[in-house]
Amino acid sequence: MELAITPIGEIHTPFTEIKGMPIQPAGARGIRGTVHVYEDYVQGLEDLDGFSHILLLYYFHRVHDYRLTVTPFLDEEQHGVFATRAPKRPNPIGLSVVRLRAVDGDRLHLENVDMLDGSPLLDIKPYVPDFDQYTHVRTGWLEKSRDNVEHKQSDERFSE
Ligand SMILES: C[S@@+](CC[C@H](N)C(=O)[O-])C[C@H]1O[C@@H](n2cnc3c(N)ncnc32)[C@H](O)[C@@H]1O
User: Fold this and answer.
1) Domain extent at residue 24
2) For ligand 1, atom 23: residue with the closest CA
């Protein structure tokens, strides 16, 4: 089966270069961005302003192929791509929980953005702790490097 997906908007952030940008929203605290939602989809934003945080699903548009094992930013060893958040994946879709500062017509004002400027937006969902947050979790190979996520910056290993 092949799927065709149409972007519903575009994400704007200060990041035009992959090198040096944050690798997760935890490393992008306070960094502002916007979403421009295309006209055909603006009605779907009704009531979104009641939520402080949203999930953005977007296309890693500067990734061109994929690998099934990768050395992620937070480790020096290889892992299966589905055990990582590496952008070079069979379906290069990013998922970020960001703070929603305001909704203004067709614009969303955001904080904690970790994606490149111009990333095509695929979907928006409200972040709901009762649905999305778990307290007793295991985090696999990331256990040993979780403290690094705020400081680690991206290099270009996945954009070559
Ligand atoms: C590790 S991914 C994590 C993104 C998201 N929070 C997730 O977990 O799916 C973030 C990195 O992907 C790369 N990246 C971000 N936006 C991109 C885009 N539109 N095209 C290609 N690479 C991108 C940058 O290297 C950035 O540091």
Assistant:
1) 9-128+137-148
2) 60
